[in-house]
């Protein structure tokens, strides 16, 4: 895979800017490099440009690179970042933000050193405190439904008044508005924008419509 030898040339974003760009950040799992560019174009056409491509498949980095090079209006992000090596590989492939399923100081330092905005994953108060100690106050609440859902976020609003969340995991078009109505929720993450069957069949118009519907959700 070719690498991005000058990753700092693009416009940079803060974690909060990543979260406020649209109400939903799509969680993308790609199995075929040839799907990467048309999928990204379909999402952008629907008004969603912050794209979290998860590091869950062998072709994920190649997909990020294709999107970064061929769909400049998209902002390519890396999901499932679990180590400093993941962060570095993603940055070299063109990722402009990172999302992790949990948080360690090693991942936090690596992303900061790389100039890669990070949305760390948290599921407990202790994890929120650890991330905040390292300067991270825009966080991914994951897995949201399994870890307490709306009730947990409401409980955290008291002790963590300076923290903003992107709940991900079990968020759907049916409950997204409830999450977005909470004052400490900036956006949500969801895989429903990229149904597996639509990606495999190349039904890009359906994905554009799903993105368009998601972009109109009210915070």
TrEMBL record:
CDD domains: KDPG_aldolase (cd00452)
Catalysed reactions, semicolon-separated: 2-dehydro-3-deoxy-6-phospho-D-gluconate = D-glyceraldehyde 3-phosphate + pyruvate
Top-rank EC class of the record's enzyme: lyase
InterPro entries in the cross-refs: Aldlse_KDPG_KHG (IPR000887), Aldolase_TIM (IPR013785), KDPG/KHG_AS_1 (IPR031337), KDPG/KHG_AS_2 (IPR031338)
Domain of life of the native organism: Bacteria
Pfam family for this entry, one: Aldolase
GO MF annotation list: 2-dehydro-3-deoxy-phosphogluconate aldolase activity
Pathway: Carbohydrate acid metabolism; 2-dehydro-3-deoxy-D-gluconate degradation; D-glyceraldehyde 3-phosphate and pyruvate from 2-dehydro-3-deoxy-D-gluconate: step 2/2
E.C. no: 4.1.2.14
Family listed: Belongs to the KHG/KDPG aldolase family.
NCBIfam families: eda (TIGR01182), PRK05718.1 (NF004325)
Quaternary structure, from the entry: Homotrimer.
Protein name per Swiss-Prot or TrEMBL: 2-dehydro-3-deoxy-phosphogluconate aldolase
Gene: eda
């Amino acid at each position: 895979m070719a690498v991005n030898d000058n990753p700092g040339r693009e416009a940079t974003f803060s974690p909060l800017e990543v979260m406020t760009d649209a109400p939903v950040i799509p969680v993308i799992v790609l199995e075929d490099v040839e799907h990467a560019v048309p999928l990204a174009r379909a999402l952008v056409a629907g008004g969603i440009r912050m794209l979290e491509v998860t590091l869950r498949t062998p072709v994920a980095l190649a997909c990020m690179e294709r999107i970064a090079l061929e769909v400049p209006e998209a902002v390519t992000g890396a999901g499932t970042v679990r180590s400093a090596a993941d962060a570095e590989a993603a940055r070299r492939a063109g990722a402009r933000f990172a999302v992790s399923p949990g948080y360690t100081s090693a991942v936090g330092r690596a992303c900061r050193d790389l100039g890669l905005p990070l949305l760390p994953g948290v599921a407990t108060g202790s994890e929120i405190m650890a991330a905040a100690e390292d300067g991270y106050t825009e966080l991914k609440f994951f897995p949201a439904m399994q870890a307490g859902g709306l009730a947990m976020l409401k409980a955290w609003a008291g002790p963590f008044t300076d923290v903003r969340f992107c709940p991900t995991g079990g968020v759907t078009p049916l409950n997204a508005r409830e999450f977005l109505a909470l004052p400490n929720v900036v956006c949500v993450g969801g895989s429903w924008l990229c149904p597996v069957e639509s990606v495999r069949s190349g039904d890009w118009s359906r994905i554009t419509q799903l993105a368009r519907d998601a972009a109109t959700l009210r915070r």
